[in-house]
Amino acid sequence: MVSQIALLAGDGIGIEIMAEAEKLLRALDIKGLSLIHADCGGTAYHKHGHPLPKATLDIAKNSDAILFGAVGDPSCDNLDRHLRPEQAVLGLRSELGLFANLRPAKMMSGMEGSSSLRANISQNIDMLIVRELNGDVYFGEKGMRQTDTGLRQGYDIMSYDEDEVRRIAHVGFKAAQGRQGKLCSVDKANVLETSQLWRDVVIEVAAEYPDVELSHMYVDNAAMQMVKAPGQFDVILTGNLFGDILSDLASMCVGSIGLLASASLSQGRLGLYEPIHGSAPDIAGQQIANPLAMILSTAMMFRHSLDNEEIAAKIEQAVAKTLADNILGRDLGGLASTSEIGDAVIARL
Ligand code: NAD
Ligand code: IPM
Ligand code: MN
After folding, report:
1. 279 carries a ligand binding annotation
2. Quick one: 326 exposed, middle or buried, by C-beta within 10 A (0-12, 13-18, 19+)?
């Protein structure tokens, strides 16, 4: 059986880190894996007039998994929103029903010195952020209008329905069952109706998982707790916006945003795998981006879409050895280039 992997590099460092993921896939030389490239983001806008051309969406739909680099191009910041590079990733998430975003943040041995936190605080971090990805303020009605008094007003409607909360809650509880059995649901139920519903539904779903210890935390406190005592978290279950913000925060607790991978899953087997970071225009084209988040996303692809735990573990071990051998990019205080890091992982497979 052939598995088709779509490679959507995107923009900026997305292109450089995707080259390392592709090199790794070719080095693994797995029978029955076919790789197909497609344009997205600003690159696709400049070439084809749209950040997610139909041809790219079709390739994604017809693949077994999607590896996604990053999108974002400052030259597109003033385009109509539907033409901006970010619509590529948002469009894929909604068109493919990728509602469950898993963002693990684990302290890897030897990385304590790179964390923004003191080593005694960062040493035990092992959390999984389960972020809802198809709803919330991201996908509600939005627009610009004028108030009665003639002022410009921007608006974005935040909402969740109970089915959307229920299905991501199940993902969170199941993930907790496979880990330390603790789930912390993060919301803002003290202020937002959306969050009140979120909390009510999570409590209902919890009845089906008596073996999971459920707690609730307001998002502002969660941000504070994440830097005060991040070791307390196992699974964090949260909405689209809060999950976006908290995962960037979690990345610096474990050393660098260049280390955080993610899986975006649907009800079926198809998944999209991408680093949590963006196209990093400030360092693009210099071969100084850390490709490990992309490479670890590739490992997640083998685990969740290709049913190949053996290869997933092999990649993760090679990454751990690369770090242990002090082959570090600038983000981690080293001097290794993007491709040197990619080569080092391959040499340790
Ligand atoms: P960013 O994640 O691109 O960069 C934030 C900071 O982290 C920058 O200083 C950057 O140099 C650094 N950084 C990020 N990845 C790194 C890596 N692998 N190695 C070393 N350093 C790294 O966030 P931003 O600057 O806010 O956004 C830039 C563009 O990316 C925007 O257009 C944004 O919309 C887009 N974006 C896209 C995605 C995605 O494609 N999924 C995610 C986040 C941001
Ligand atoms: C992420 C990014 C995206 C998000 C943007 C680029 C739409 O920040 O994947 O974390 O907000 O989800
Ligand atoms: Mn983000």
Report:
1. yes
2. exposed
